[in-house]
Amino acid sequence: MVSDRDNLIIPNAVASPSTDATHFYARPTPPGGDWGRRTRATAWGLRTFWLVVQKHRSLIVGCSVAIFLLVAIYTLKADKQYEGTVSLAIYKESQEQLINPPVEGPDDWNANIDLDTQVKVIRSETLAWRVIQELRLDEEVAFAGDSARSAEQAVLKSESAEDHKEELIAKFEKNLSVVVLPRTRILELHFLSTDPELAARIANALANDYIDLNYTTKYDATMRVSTWLGKQLQDLQIQIQDAEGKLAKYQAEHDILGIDEKQNVVFDQLSAINNELTKSVVDRIQKQAAYELTNSEHTELITRFVPDTVLDKLRSDSIDAKEQYEQANLQFGPNYPKVKELEHVYQDISSAYNEERRNVLLKIKNDYQAAVDRERMLRKEFDDAKQAANQLNQNAIQYGVMKREVESNRNIYQSLLEHMKEAGVMAGLKSNNIRIIDPAHVPSRPSKPNVLRNLAVGLLLALAAGVAMAFFIEGLDNTVSSPDDIRDLTAFEVLATVPDISSIDTASGTGRFHRLLRRLLLHGNTAPQTNPLGTEPPEQSVALVSSLRPQSVISESYRALRTALLLSGVGRAPRILVVTSTSPREGKTTTSVNTAIVLAQTGAKVLLVDADMRRPTVHRIFSMENGELGLSTLLSGQAKVADVIRPSGIVPTLNVITAGPIPPHPSELLGSSLMKKHIRDWEEEFDYVVLDVPPVLLVTDAVVLSSLANGVILVVRSDVTRKPELRRTEDILSHVHAPILGVVVNAISKQSHNHYYHGYYYGASDTSYYSNEYRAKSDSEDSDKSAEAS
Fold first, then answer.
1. Residues near 585 by beta carbon (within 8 Å), at least 6 away in sequence
2. Beta-carbon count within 10 A of 525 CB
3. Percent of the chain, pLDDT > 70?
4. Mean pLDDT over residues 693-722, rounded?
5. Residue 745 to residues 415, 485, 555: CA-CA distances in angstroms?
């Protein structure tokens, strides 16, 4: 079938070995001979996802049901647990501190840190053991379980008691959860227990013990700070007395009565000299720039730094005189009196300009030298003043250090004395920043297990696991499953798709056709055909479906193949057809038989030849003898053509040649000149010749016969044929330039991706959709096409 899809399949005219007529077959022509390779990215969209789910729905349902049942059993058998809940409000700590005021910062950040700290405190082992001892939880079976013991049993060895303590604390922490409510300062304490009353008691006891622990911690901290402050005050008082004595002695030794830096003359003088030095440096830099410009080649720019109206005027007059002289010289010549007069004027002005310019340059140099000298003098005075100021402050610095030390010690002493008094008062006040908002009440119903939530989550996880398993298996699948796979892997066209017999339902949806075939498999016999629905053997019931069940979906698939074959040629349809496959058990013989039947149903004379002389099957389908006469005896010269051609008994215009006795070398017989002669004779006598040949990958028979045919039909079985085998088959056939018409995808099931193809084109019904009138009309139209092609 000709197609120009993706510019990879182009028509190629190939002459029939026995006729001048030509037909087209699909073959790409890239350089290097690798004409069977095509790559195309496949998008996994929603449709692909749905098709994978449809294909593996049994696996998904089974996996989902198994996981869901496990979750349901676990949920229903789990012990019921009750939850006691206490709500605590933790307010901000008092801003009054004993030593230093708090550092201001973002309120939310500090609140989060504080709440996280309190959560750790509540979940601490110290608080847990305190509650366990207070409520004697080690004796509660609902808490300790099998390890619960009485007061008499509590007197054990120290090592055993320590292990038991760790076990109880671990159970306590496992059943305790603390939740911080978002954007609040509220904590919720949740405790789980199989006893609802015990859950409430433990939650309330934990909250009360936490509040007491918080108060006790603060009281102990306050008392420790108060004691520490008393010791620090004693040491600080001694330091103050020692510092004051040293300050008085130093002041007396250096005759220091008082120092005020803001009113000191030396510092004022130093500041004034520094300002003048700065101005001098700026002035020197400007004059230095003008002086350096006088030594450059651009002395005409001097006036920008030293404005001089006389020099500017002389320069301008010199330029004007020069222009007048040059114009007169060009007009009258150098000997003209007026020209000579202008020349003398120009020379006088130039001399005056040069003299004035030398004076200006000399002035710039003198100004620069004066600025340098002034800067040197100011810098020397600044250094002298700085040295005097340093000497003056030497004693004052040490005096200031000693004075500040005394003042600092006094301030610290006063502050510590005040805080020590506050600590004594705060230690006597029982204040707390933690309040119980809602105490725990005895719960009326269990909180765990949450049956509905567990079942819902279990169902979702089960479905997810089932789908994941389906895609995992799909990823491991290396078989051809759809016509899209054919187009992706090869350059072949898909001529037809044949549904799987076991997956077809009738119009009533009960699968009568499938049950009919199963009944035929169980009760069929080898008697001649009298009733196509109940008397044929198993192989006939499947391979002769186009005759036994002409209204079925499978029959319509073969009629679609017939239409594709009739339209595959230009001017005439291919008459010598080779039907093969990649490997055994892919349905090539069934396809050969039904192709011959549907061609014969158009009224054309058809010859079906069983060329598979290694594993012949056609004779069993038509209930014929194969022991003495057949293709092997014809090619070996032991029989004549008239002896081996037999009527099929199915369609009047269909004749059959069985394989005959199995020869020792079938390939040599099929490639002989006698085989070529018989094919030419059959082409003259019959409208169509269908050859059922062995698989391509097993023997060379298919390759030998493909060179004698007008068209090759490759049969691929869905979910059976492996992709590497299909690629290898394509390479072999393309190497001999076989006239490949296309591929028949066989046994497509509704559970595979291929459900789209036969489901869309043929629907779910195989009996009510196609009436006898429609089938007769279809056969009549194909008969007309066959006649025109012939």
1. 717, 720
2. 10
3. 72
4. 93
5. 97, 10, 14
